[in-house]
Amino acid sequence: MSLLVTGSIGIDSVSTPHGDVAEVLGGSAVYFSWAAAAFCTVRLVGVVGEDFPSKFTKAFKHPRINPAGLEKRKGSKTFRWSGRYDATMNEATTTAVDLNVLAERAPAVPKAFADSKVVFLAATHPGLQMELLGQIKKPKLVISDTRDLWIRNYRDELIKSLKSIDGIVLNDAEARLLTGEVNLVKALAMIRKLVRKNGPQIVIVKKGEHGCLVAHGPDIFAMPAFPTHNVLDPTGAGDSFAGGLLGYLTGKGKFDVATFKQAVAAGTVMASFTIESFSLKGLQSAHKGKVAARLANFRKMLTKGL
Amino acid sequence: MSLLVTGSIGIDSVSTPHGDVAEVLGGSAVYFSWAAAAFCTVRLVGVVGEDFPSKFTKAFKHPRINPAGLEKRKGSKTFRWSGRYDATMNEATTTAVDLNVLAERAPAVPKAFADSKVVFLAATHPGLQMELLGQIKKPKLVISDTRDLWIRNYRDELIKSLKSIDGIVLNDAEARLLTGEVNLVKALAMIRKLVRKNGPQIVIVKKGEHGCLVAHGPDIFAMPAFPTHNVLDPTGAGDSFAGGLLGYLTGKGKFDVATFKQAVAAGTVMASFTIESFSLKGLQSAHKGKVAARLANFRKMLTKGL
Predict the structure, then answer these.
(1) Could you point out which of A128, A139, A273, B279 has its C-alpha 20 to 30 Å from the C-alpha of B152?
(2) Is the per-residue pLDDT at B88 higher than 90?
(3) Could you tell me which chain B residue has the CA closest to the CA of A227?
(4) Which CATH code fits A3-303?
């Protein structure tokens, strides 16, 4: 089975109580791809400007990342984001953002990628997500992400887009914003009713350090985060979670509730590597043995004794 | 094995977005006892005033609650608390409190209770907790609870008291207040170093709807809350959690990490019954079969597929 991600590739500057980094590689598609690549090959679709540093290009030279959908657009500039975290490390405050090439036309999905079976549409304008999805022939599982911006300003388009896909990943504040419901278990059920009827109907509410709440059709389960002493920078945690999740599912080639629970554990573990370092360092240091060991520890923590 | 609880018995008035109740039975020892009684017999030590309504006395007529330590003190008035929850239902705002009899001398632990093996010291002045504990001969497991008030104003006494006991249950804000550490995994490790060395060294950080984080000696585990659609009133959830936890451990008669994990699941389930109704209604409706079924569901949610 084949996995495709569409999302941003950016240059980030991040300030946290534990340090600062300037002009590092970031973006949803980048974190997603590195996390997914722990479990399967991933096809990347995204666009950068002609200013994109060649030193960052090596991040796409992973044996399991296929960058055939990476467009370097002449005359355009790469997306840039600057953010700051306070001591709680829970939510980023955006201090500067230049959409640049992301405000232009979307990149094309290469013809060779049109047969992708699992698709992740990272957060962007819901109309754009649908335009990208329209280039995939017969996907079996399509999951999107969103942001408060799209919920606030493009609610109707967003809700319409959900009818064409199998599920959505969003954080607790976004789930409350979308539904107007404080109780996340109720919000989960409400959002599930918005997605495509004849699919697995997935809703995942991410709660950062508190783990996540998942609906898989009528089944609901909660999973805590991997307990981490060492949180340096939460940037990319959500996309790493989604990458680990969909990478695991693609590797297994099935989407039943048991495989989904294992996949949520895999996503949780990949997110834990991301937050332990700045930029991609955590994911890049998470070699096969390290991922397998932490995933085994996490599953043991969740189940042993019960 | 025998379980003893010392704590408050009060008359509560609670206002939530889902309704209001006035002058209902409450108090830490009451919630704890009803939750623990699902798993073992519980010995209750507490004091009320002569105004204590006789209609409330029937709450202690549970076949597994031994109220021999319940003192009805002449000339004194029962503890009263009024609180309000906002839409998030996360933390109560105290709108009125009359300590009344709780500001007087502590109740005595009956001689017949002095051989209790598991002891829960509900939140009160740490000096008073130690005075109560001093009346128990050779307890095997002693766990206390605390509040921000005691951490702020009696920090030294609190830290000193921890050296005599096996563990503490506190919420996330209290754990951060006690340690000055935002990362709860780090805070957990710091608090563990404060408790008695030659015991199991238990720290449980309660996070409401997000479940809890537990240290059992060097082992750390996280557990989500039971996903509940129907949160009417969180009052008593923490004490119900502690009651289910220590009741389960007492019933099993052992405190190893596997039994502890099962006990945390039991505590989580008892708390979920409490928040589904006002006052004790949720716990009182949770008959044996209902508890067993929900606990089995919860364990299945946590482990099945992984």
Answers:
(1) B279
(2) no
(3) B185
(4) 3.40.1190.20
